[in-house]
Design goal:
- It is a single chain.
- The chain has a two-stranded parallel ribbon with strand order 1-2.
- It is largely without helices or strands.
- It comes from Laceyella tengchongensis.
- This is Cytosolic protein.
C-alpha cells in the first residue's frame, strides 16, 4: 500500500483553491522527499484492473501505457 505522504494529489481547480489570491504561487510548497510522486487525476489508480480494456468512448485517444513496437524499415 502506498503511503499518502508519497502520492501528491493534484489541485481540484487548476487556478488554486477557491478564494485563493491571484498572485499566489501554485504547486508544491515544501521540498520534494525521496519516493514522492505526483498522482494524476486522469489515469487509472490500479492499472492492472484495467489491463487489456480498450477505451470505448467515441473520439477517445489511444492509451500510451504500453511501449510501441519499433518501426521496421
Amino acid at each position: 500500500m502506498t503511503s499518502s505522504t508519497e502520492r501528491i494529489q493534484p489541485e481540484e481547480f487548476p487556478d488554486g483553491p477557491y478564494g485563493a489570491a491571484h498572485n499566489q504561487k501554485l504547486g508544491k510548497s515544501t521540498p520534494w522527499e525521496p519516493g514522492q510522486q505526483i498522482h494524476s487525476a486522469f489515469t487509472y489508480e490500479m492499472r492492472e484492473f484495467h489491463e487489456g480494456l480498450e477505451r470505448d468512448y467515441p473520439g477517445s485517444h489511444p492509451r500510451h501505457d504500453e511501449p510501441e513496437e519499433p518501426a521496421q524499415s
